[in-house]
Amino acid sequence: MDKLRQKMKMIKDLGVQLGGIHFHCGSGQNGAKNFDEAIELARECIKIGRQVGHSMEIIDIGGGLPAGELDSELLETLRSTKNDPLGYQIISEPGRYLSSRSCLLATRVIGKREKQNRKCYHINDSLYHSFNCVLMDGVSFEDQSDQFYSRFNHNYQSELGQLKNGSMFGMTCDGYDVIVKNLMMPELNVGDWLIMGGMGAYTYGPRSNFNGMTTLDSIYTHL
Question: What is the percentage of the chain residues whose pLDDT exceeds 70?
Answer without folding.
Answer: 99
